[in-house]
Amino acid sequence: MFFEGQRSGKLPPTQRLTWRRDSALKDGSDIGMDLVGGYYDAGDNVKFHLPMAWTTTMIGWSVLEFGNKMGYPDLRHSLDALRWGTDYFLKATSVPDRIVAQVADPVLDHDCWERPEDMDTPRNSYLLNASHPGSEVAGEIAAALAVGALAFRKISPSYTKLLLNRAIQVFEFGDKHRGSYAQSVGAGACPFYCSSNGYMDELAWGAAWLFKATGDNKYAYYVKSNLELTNYVQLDYAYAANADNLVCAIMPESPFKTYTFTPGGLLYAEGASSNMQNPTALCFLLAAYTRVLRAQNRVVQCGDVNIAPSRLDRFVEGQVDYILDIRKHPERIGCSEGYGFFRNVTSNPNVLIGAVVGGPDVNDRFQDSRLVVSQSEPTTYINAPFVGVLAFVKGRANV
């Protein structure tokens, strides 16, 4: 339901959060494209395509990995949330050799705190092309479209074909015209969503999902040749070793632990704009990896400490318990209606059901104030992996 509250564009009759209405119905008109739809990424009204594409991919991966744990109504809603993203990215990539990287000026948008239904700030579109590349955005969008193709394969073969063909096209564009969108978009990208470690990880991410969706070994070779895995002879071993190393870096009892925890036991993201994006994403990876470990009938060896899949199960459940208790009423996050409510602590006329906020500081302190954006603001990229995590925990509860 949270993602329905983040929807932009013309809303369908099935919309459950009825306080959210149609908005941004002229997006793309400045460049002659239809860019109506997509998601607002957080509490602002900007459509940042880099985090939106990652969000879409993670919703899709949640469906692929844990959809059988969701139950029919929630699986259907998850597929709706996925398609809201993939439909939009088909629009944003509809012109060959052009990709729209973003809609709206983030500086001007952030200066005017208002509902998207009422906004009057500029809705300019930021374009990528051969002379203004954005490989990280292309890689993320390619991944989102490829995951969508996998998720809808048995539901709509024609839609799957459309998504897959577009994913290949977008990936090839991003790989052929390499460069960072931070330079092409400039102040529209940074300091908001810079790609701090370059664009090759996003291109490899896109290639990995294209390999999964097509079975074409050229994408596996692309990943292998573009990642620093030269210490290993076989790629499968490399992935297993890196995944095991991540487990050892996270788990509190591991002698190789490098991650930080709050006194209450929550994973803490050093230097992140909001903390909760770290535990939701890492818990998703751990939950997914338990399936691999069980299939291989093995544990993770961290020095003289063995980490069994059952231990990872309990760790993920513990993180979820912390997250759901953070506000004592986790399913109800107030989303106020106008600028006058920004400093008003008593009036929350609209409820953004399902929103996971930025979370506490390193000492478990949480300030329930709009002025403390890093703690009180929910985002799509915090929530997206949590869809899969909650499905995993739900499935565990039914065992």
From TrEMBL:
Reaction equation(s) it catalyzes: Endohydrolysis of (1->4)-beta-D-glucosidic linkages in cellulose, lichenin and cereal beta-D-glucans
The keyword Amino-acid biosynthesis is annotated on this UniProt entry: no
Keyword Ion transport: no
A GO biological process held by the record: cellulose catabolic process
SUPFAM superfamilies linked to this entry: Six-hairpin glycosidases
E.C. code: 3.2.1.4
Residue ranges of every copy of the Glycoside hydrolase family domain listed in the record: 1-324, 346-390
Gene Ontology MF annotations: cellulase activity
The family this protein is said to belong to: Belongs to the glycosyl hydrolase 9 (cellulase E) family.
Name assigned to this protein: cellulase
Native organism: Linum tenue
